[in-house]
């Protein structure tokens, strides 16, 4: 089982590296437009914040699916996640309807 733990740790490191890159790229784009700079320490902190939010969102959607008696997260769980943000909920409902329509057309 040590191999599995090693693979999980390696995967986590790759995901964090990719997240660091994406957050850093976004921060660079914003700061260039504002004629400002962002320290690597700031980017690291922001990356940790984003990683924590992703983890929380994933856990919430897993709980929603489990509560509904499903083992797979679906668009209903994503929409439920946005239940307190009317604008985001509307956008997600519209996107989910488009995906359902495309699936039915197949």
Automatic annotation (TrEMBL):
GO terms for biological process: DNA repair; replication fork processing; resolution of meiotic recombination intermediates. The keyword Cytoplasm does not apply. Keywords: DNA damage, DNA repair, DNA-binding. SUPFAM superfamilies: Histone-fold. InterPro entries: CENP-S/Mhf1, Histone-fold. The keyword Nuclease does not apply. GO terms for cellular component: FANCM-MHF complex. GO terms for molecular function: chromatin binding; DNA binding; protein heterodimerization activity. Belongs to the TAF9 family. CENP-S/MHF1 subfamily. This is Related to apoptosis-inducing TAF9-like domain 1 family protein, putative.
């Amino acid at each position: 089982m040590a191999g599995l733990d090693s693979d999980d740790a390696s995967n986590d490191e790759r995901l964090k590296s990719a997240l660091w890159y994406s957050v850093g790229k976004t921060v660079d784009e914003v700061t260039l437009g504002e004629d400002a700079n962002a320290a690597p320490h700031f980017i690291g902190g922001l990356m940790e914040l984003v990683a924590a939010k992703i983890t929380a969102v994933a856990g919430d959607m897993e709980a929603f699916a489990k509560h509904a008696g499903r083992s797979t997260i679906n668009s209903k769980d994503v929409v439920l996640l946005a239940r307190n943000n009317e604008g985001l909920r509307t956008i997600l409902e519209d996107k989910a309807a488009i995906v359902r329509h495309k699936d039915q057309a197949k």
